[in-house]
Amino acid sequence: MSAAAVAAAMWAEDHASRGLGMSLDHVDEGRAVLSMRVTEAMVNGHGICHGGFIFALADSAFAFACNWTDERTVAAHCAITYLRPARLGMRLVAEAVEQTRVGRSGVTDVTVRDQNGELIALFRGHSRTIGGRITKSDDNRMTARGGNG
């Protein structure tokens, strides 16, 4: 299964990332790039992008980078360091690169930059495979959901 096929299956079910206006710009083996424009709804009382939205973008890129093998993989621990504020209207780009995978555990680094390439945040995610596949036949998907979909 290709990384692109796995990403397409994940993206189809990822209502959270799509709902925040993210776009899946690139995916490859152990790599993913997602972007998002900072909207008025994302700006906090300081007039800058709320850190939770930046975290969500980095976390989504992390998810696509560490699920490329079609083994269901989730976050076990994540940390982010904010370096610069993101402002209304900025296009943020999160680039995730899987650094290592040993057994069921992995480590993925994500950089979040603005449209000019300025570093906004650094994120490190620790992943854990939990069993099962992302791409499934319709019959398997119905069983996994416990019913008719």
Structure write-up:
There is one protein chain. By secondary structure, the chain is of the alpha+beta class. It has a single domain (3-145), classed as Roll (Thiol Ester Dehydrase, Chain A), CATH 3.10.129. The chain has 4 helices and 6 strands, in the order ααββαββββα. The protein has helices spanning 3-13, 15-19, 51-66, 138-145, and strands at residues 23-28, 31-37, 71-82, 91-102, 105-113, 119-133. A 6-stranded antiparallel beta sheet has the order 1-2-4-5-6-3, with helices on one face. A hairpin with a 2-residue loop joins strand 1 (23-28) and strand 2. It is globular and about 40 Å long. Its EC number is 3.1.2.-. GO terms for molecular function: acyl-CoA hydrolase activity. Keywords: Hydrolase. Residues 46-120 form the Thioesterase domain. InterPro entries: Acyl-CoA_thioesterase_PaaI (IPR052723), PaaD (IPR011973), PAAI_dom (IPR003736), Thioestr_dom (IPR006683).
